[in-house]
Design brief:
The protein has one domain. The protein has 239 residues and is of the alpha+beta class. Strand 6 and strand 7 form a beta hairpin. Strands 1-2-3-7-6-4 form a 6-stranded antiparallel beta barrel.
């Protein structure tokens, strides 16, 4: 079911993307299809007035047919959910490529929460997105993303974060407290937030009717630099 608040927020995202594109007349887009889950755990979670059993962890999506010039947006990617209310779909549909700050859970999350998510990805993103990631670590990573979206503010900082209270909270599916392993990972991850870590190449993929996702995709310049680095290494080895 479409969320009116989400749809309105998505319209604002599209307008912002178009406005930020200068002479480009449309937002950058990519086709998105859900493949399945990776590492993670099933939990019972609450965001505001919504409580449901959900998978917390890696989601796998195929991205294809990106806007020309965005060839790096083709392939299979591990994503994490930034939209608690809507669902994924295995049927490909068009998403807009947007800044993480523009992703919506009723309304765009804003720069402060996006900065905290960047801190999280810088410190733990490589582990959380890895093919052999621990199920507990991946579950904790997703829970911390939702906790940031629900409860993070720079004024309260870490003191405002908790997985058992506030706007966002979570338990095991049977209602018992989260396992010690998941809670310990989450507590460690909380410590990385608000530390102004270097920027990670994070982006959002946003839809008015499907679940928004956070994805790590190198920028075109980063891809070019990486290619130059490979060539330099190869030349040095030949010498």
């Amino acid at each position: 079911m479409r969320s009116n608040s989400k749809t309105a927020a998505f319209a604002a995202i599209v307008l912002a993307a178009v406005a930020g594109a200068g002479s480009v007349a449309q937002a950058q887009t990519v086709s998105v299809a859900y493949l399945g889950t990776g590492a993670g755990r099933n939990v019972k979670a609450t965001m505001g007035a919504t409580t449901k059993d959900v998978f917390s962890g890696q989601l796998r999506h195929t991205l294809s047919n990106p806007t020309p010039g965005y060839s790096q947006w083709s392939g299979t990617f591990v994503t994490f959910c930034a939209d608690f209310t809507q669902t994924v779909s295995s049927t490909a549909s068009t998403f807009n490529i947007v800044p993480v700050a523009s992703l919506a859970v009723g309304a765009p999350m804003g720069a402060e929460k996006a900065a905290a998510i960047n801190d999280l990805y810088h410190a733990f993103g490589t582990q959380a997105t890895a093919g052999g990631a621990s199920a507990d670590l991946a579950a904790a990573f997703q829970l911390v993303v939702w906790e940031i979206i629900g409860d993070w503010t720079s004024s309260t900082g870490l003191s405002g974060l908790s997985l058992d209270g506030g706007t966002f909270r979570a338990t095991q599916t049977n209602g018992n407290a989260l396992t010690n392993a998941v809670s310990t990972h989450a507590a460690t991850m909380f410590g990385a937030l608000g530390t102004n870590r270097p920027t990670v190449p994070l982006s959002g993929i946003a839809s008015g009717t499907r679940q928004d996702q956070i994805v790590t995709v190198p920028a075109p310049g980063a891809v070019a630099l990486a290619g130059m680095g490979v060539l330099l290494i190869a030349k040095r080895r030949r010498k």
